[in-house]
Design brief:
- The structure holds two protein chains of two kinds.
- Chain A is an alpha+beta fold.
- Chain A has two domains: about 80 residues, Gyrase A, domain 2; about 150 residues, Cyclophilin-like (Cyclophilin, Beta Barrel), CATH 2.40.100.
- Chain A is about 25% helix and about 25% strand.
- Chain A contains five helices and twelve strands.
- Chain A has an eight-stranded mixed sheet. In chain A, strands 1-2-4-3 form a four-stranded antiparallel sheet.
- Chain B is built from five helices and 23 strands.
- In chain B, a hairpin with a 2-residue loop joins strand 6 and strand 7.
- Chain B has two domains: about 200 residues, no CATH class; about 120 residues, Cyclophilin (Beta Barrel), CATH 2.40.100.
- Classes of the chains: A alpha+beta, B alpha+beta.
Amino acid sequence: MNSTPPRLLDAGEAALVVEFGSEVDQVTNERVLALDRALATLTLPGLRETVPTYRSLMIHYDPVLLDRSRLVDVVRGIENAAPILPCAPNHLWTIPCCYDPELGEDITAVAAMTGLSTDRIVALHAGTTYRVYMYGFAPGFCYLGGLPRELVVSRRPTPRPPHPPNTILLGGGLTLITTFAMPTGWWLLGRTPERMFAPTREPKFLVDVGDALRFAPVNRLTFDALEARAENSEIVSKRERLR
Amino acid sequence: MKTVLRIIAAGHGVTLQDGGRFGYLRYGVTPAGPMDPLAFATANQAVGVPPDAVAIEVSLGGVELTVDGGPISLAIAGGTFRLQLDGNELPMPAVVRLAPPQRLAIRAGAAGAWCYVAVAGRIDVAPMLGSVATHTRSRLGGLSGRALEANDVLPLTSPFLVEPAIAIIVAPWLERAGDTIRVLLGPQNDYFTADQMAAFLQGPWTLSARSDRMAYLLGGQPLRHAKGFNIVSDGIAVGAIQVPGNGQPMVLMADRQPTGGYPKIANVIGADVGRLAQLRPGAQFRFLSVTIEEAVAARRAESQALAEPLILTPLRRTDLSSEFLLGLNLIDGIIDAER
């Protein structure tokens, strides 16, 4: 286990960045989440909220209530207290995804770039267990790590106009579940009927950072049926408790 | 009849804001909230409501509003906008009493880019993810996630009247010159060589007209990166100064995304985010590097400014413009409180 002490960086006087590395990898992300979970168990007046990302934890705090040196001591204390154990995921999610070219319009372009058949792309993308690395970009946009090497493609040369909501994207060595229509530089691989974010549902955000996630291929007919149920605020994915 | 605020006209970018949508940054949710938090809190405090209560944020596009039902008290603070009550000029920042069918018009004035209309009472709009703060890009908050428009109606719960009815808010802390903006260097200042750091602090920088609630874009001599401009996305604090590939810095403001992937050369200190927000396109300024101790002291001074009850000075006739005095002859009784 890599236990190099994290770098502590100030992002203004009200945010501390605890940086465990500069790359996207699972061990680094596990250390981020371990610190995040440890901080969540403490009552620390002035600590506002934390934002886990691939390789660092941003701690937003009120420096009038919580002195930086005290916060740094707490973080160092957690890091020194115990060897960091891998953070096993709490849940495994199975998210339906329709790879029909009508919904995943770039699947043939990805086939051309990778030299794989579209069937093989679906088998690889849906045959992998991913890790939820972080949310970002827009509410409920969910970044997944663990993409098979065969599916690593470069981004689009120029961004395209907004994709439909709930599109599954591929790019930059990751795959991403979207919620809102947004312009993107990534490739459109499929679409899920699931709502990763629904402001009037509990949970509002379906998955937690650190959870495991797989895609289950569904055909267009099944997609349409699930879409109608999801539109009715039903969760159409499967959740298994792992621990 | 229930008392409601009615929007007669609203320029682009007039929105409902509260203290911001916090607790969901980790899910990719933008905090939104006021561009100038100190002016926002001052307006709320002037009418005796909590500092993070829902208020109207007025852009340079201006707004015109009226009240249906009963009279209400409003406070207007932030920048120096032109304030007119039925065509009569009022000074800023001010507490105003508005009774049907009077109209309050707020237009871009001598200085400032954002002002706040706080209400004595509560603007009764359902929160989304715990907040009414409008973020139009993700359609959260406000009225269906959008900016205010003509004919919008804002219901008020438990409105009350403030004395004096028309008064100047004594808030010297809102008189902030904006030609020097203080920053803490980092967190990715190691992506720039020493001469580029010096160039960043030397400036000067000019605020671009393409700036909005999400980012203030800066024009000037482009900065060069020492080791590329792609970093693995990490957290973004308010006031973060990102330097994208074109070398033109951008300061991330209230509508920032909670994470991003460009190197952040420095971060505007909390006490200066609102000062920067109040600059107008074309304004020129420099950055000044300060220590974290100075940044915290400035933040503490700001919070102390609002620790005491605000002083409201009834308007005397000498404070009023000639247009206002002329108008008074037509609508006698408007400044009862000073008699």
